[in-house]
């Protein structure tokens, strides 16, 4: 057991810190978790957190802070953990991140803060995400959440969408004293956090906790409001008196492969599949009716290699799939999914079929999916993404029996707001055009950010856009200059 009295920042020699191995996250055993929807990662306790925090080398110019998309003061909150001030550490994170319990679970830290950690040059990086999760969960258990005092400005801001970008801009602007109302099209708040990420990776209760904290600061939320249909941007500003609007509707329209057989029963987009399971609570069957085709004892495949693809196939496994495949046209090295998620999926028994590309969904003769025809691929020259282009190998076609297929090859912009907001500029793909530094659109007082501007990206990048937008909106509201 570590004595916190001897664990003040910088008390342990640098050489000794480097000898401490990375503290592994406790997890459910693979065989057990593959049959339930309980969270896979169990979280650090105080002892593991204290030992992991001691590994920080207290760099003079910490690259981790520079690489954090939302600017969390990582070294400062790590020092507070070492000192045993967990509530202080949580408060320090909340200065820049209104969703610490969420980002501590789903942010791809290995691509940002942890990826730039100097410890990674000779070993494993500091577990920054694990530590962030620890202090956020500790804060909740203690029932003490730091909420800064604010002075009302008299300005009103409408936020369209309650996903990570919308929640971030709402939280940051509320701290500035502006009155915030968030409009959500679905019946549950959280956007992609709620409908897209399964319970075993991000429990719904965690999302609810974070939103409840935001409610306590005075932020208002309205569900079942489809901005562009129920009410327009024009009406929000001219009739309801909002001084600014932030559009954060995400990119929820699914893309398909445009191959024969996609119309067969049993073929889903990943968005529909995960939404039915997460928001319609298929994961709680038989407590709730199962709003998807029966999966138990069936062969299921997901097409794609991102985090959403792995979320879908790991969900299918938990619903009783007999065989659960990932069909990915590149190799494992090119997969965009997090390494931890790939490791978890493989431990649970997911069957990865790399360099495999579907060319046709096959009918069972009765309008239902019966299989998929695939071709084997080889990697060629790099394409526009910088990854090696997959090229079909002639004469390698084969059929794989399937009852359910989930297509996870990307998303596109929902056009409702763009079509109902005159003068709102979009690009050729239908995404809203916004200045990358200020998130300002072509309409005065209207800002946009997240996936509706960039296309599908990560939670943390959507939050980064929200932070930039909040700063820009505050400047606009306080100066009146566009």
How do you describe this structure in short?
This protein has helices at residues 14-19, 30-33, 46-53, 63-67, 74-82, 86-94, 100-106, 128-142, 164-175, 192-195, 204-216, 233-238, 270-278, 307-318, 339-348, 416-420, 451-454, 459-479, and strands spanning 156-160, 179-183, 220-222, 244-247, 253-254, 267-269, 299-303, 323-328, 351-354, 356-363, 369-382, 388-392, 398-401, 404-407, 411-412, 446-448.
Q: How do the strands of the widest beta sheet line up side by side?
A: 3-2-1-4-16
* Assigned CATH class of the largest domain: Alpha Beta
Quantity of strands, as a count: 16
Instruction: Report the CATH architecture of the largest domain.
Output: 3-Layer(bba) Sandwich
Largest sheet, in brief, is: 5 strands, parallel
Tell me roughly what share of residues is in helical segments: 25-40%
CATH superfamily of the largest domain: FAD/NAD(P)-binding domain
Radius of gyration: 23 Å
- Strand content is 15-25%
Q: Ranges with pLDDT <50 over ≥5 residues?
A: 1-7
Number of distinct helices: 18
Distance between the termini: 57 Å
The domain count comes to 3
The overall average pLDDT, rounded, is 94
Broad structural category: alpha/beta
CATH topology of the largest domain: FAD/NAD(P)-binding domain
Written description of the protein model:
The protein has 482 residues and is of the alpha/beta class. The protein folds into 3 domains: 4-142, Orthogonal Bundle (Fumarate Reductase Iron-sulfur Protein, Chain B, domain 2), CATH 1.10.1060; 156-252 and 413-479, FAD/NAD(P)-binding domain (3-Layer(bba) Sandwich), CATH 3.50.50; 254-410, FAD/NAD(P)-binding domain (3-Layer(bba) Sandwich), CATH 3.50.50.60. It has 18 helices and 16 strands. The strands form 4 sheets. A 5-stranded parallel beta sheet has the order 3-2-1-4-16. The longest helix is centred in the C-terminal third of the chain and has 21 residues, at 459-479. It is globular, with a radius of gyration of 23 Å.
